[in-house]
Specification:
GO molecular function: methyltransferase activity
Keywords: Methyltransferase, Transferase
CATH topology of the largest domain: Rossmann fold
Oligomer: single chain
Number of strands: 11
CATH class of the largest domain: Alpha Beta
Protein name: Class I SAM-dependent methyltransferase
Helix content: 25-40%
Number of domains: 2
CATH architecture of the largest domain: 3-Layer(aba) Sandwich
Organism: Oceanobacillus jeddahense
Distance between the termini: 31 Å
Strand content: 25-35%
Number of helices: 7
CATH superfamily of the largest domain: Vaccinia Virus protein VP39
Radius of gyration: 18 Å
């Protein structure tokens, strides 16, 4: 499973992730909603950066991730009385969550880890059932352009004082499918570095496919945005990240 040993160095190496841009998008989506949003479930919350930011903004938060290691990092430094509920679960298996939420979010291309249409549909159906009537679901995915023209065939790297990584993106067998082959070096004690590897599997689908699945499950008022712009339906063939807002 992805995000095991990597969880220890994730925040340090991903400090350039534009979490504040996601926060602006989320809060703007909330501002458009006619009824108030009080409870939010963050699916694929990882180390909980966005979950904690939203909790600090006054929302009642539940953070869900299938990686126990990522959730352990999310909980670090929090007081025992912290109001965030943390749940270890796969998005395709959310039967144990009974609460009905005003909003569900899934940020940072988490949905791209659902690499079959069956799993995408299963997860979105589960999310639909968690929402209150008129609840909203906000998520983003890599575009086909990003996967096939920006990532596949490329190698990325980064170095900090205590960690480094080499990240290779290789194609899968299907359109929009890729594997991330990651090698990490993490400083443990003194000048000693531990080397470990992870392999991540992602796939994206055309915008129209996600639209069809959302409609099939029962979502309405499906709005689409791109690249952190708040301009509705501004996406095109070279948009890099696609955002969906769907209402139950």
């Amino acid at each position: 499973m992805a995000y095991r040993k990597m969880a220890e160095v994730y925040d340090e190496l991903m400090d350039n992730v534009p979490y504040d841009d996601w926060m602006v998008m989320i809060q703007q989506m909330i501002a458009q909603k006619e009824s108030p949003v009080k409870s939010i479930i963050d699916l694929g919350c990882g180390t909980g950066v966005i979950t904690r930011k939203l909790a600090a903004a006054g929302y009642t938060m539940t953070g869900v991730d299938q990686s126990s290691e990522m959730l352990s990092q999310a909980k670090k430094g929090l007081e025992s009385a912290d109001s965030i509920k943390w749940v270890e679960a796969d998005m395709t298996e959310l039967d144990g969550l009974q609460h009905y939420y005003d909003m569900a979010i899934s940020c940072c291309d988490v949905i791209n880890y659902l690499t079959s249409l069956e799993d995408v549909e299963k997860a979105i159906k589960n999310i639909y059932q968690l929402l209150k009537k008129d609840g909203i679901f906000f998520f983003d995915v890599h575009s086909m352009y990003t996967v096939e023209d920006i990532y596949i065939g490329q190698t990325f790297s980064d170095v900090t004082d205590e960690a480094a990584y080499i990240w290779e993106c290789v194609p899968g067998e299907e359109n929009g499918e890729m594997y991330h082959q990651l090698t990490f070096f993490h400083q443990e004690e003194g000048d000693h570095f531990t080397r470990f590897q992870e392999k991540h599997h992602q796939r994206t689908f055309p915008v129209e496919v996600y639209q069809q699945i959302l409609k099939k499950i029962g979502f309405k008022k499906i709005n689409i945005y791109a690249d952190f712009s708040l301009e509705l339906n501004n996406w095109n063939e070279q948009s890099e990240r696609i955002f969906f807002l769907a209402e139950k």
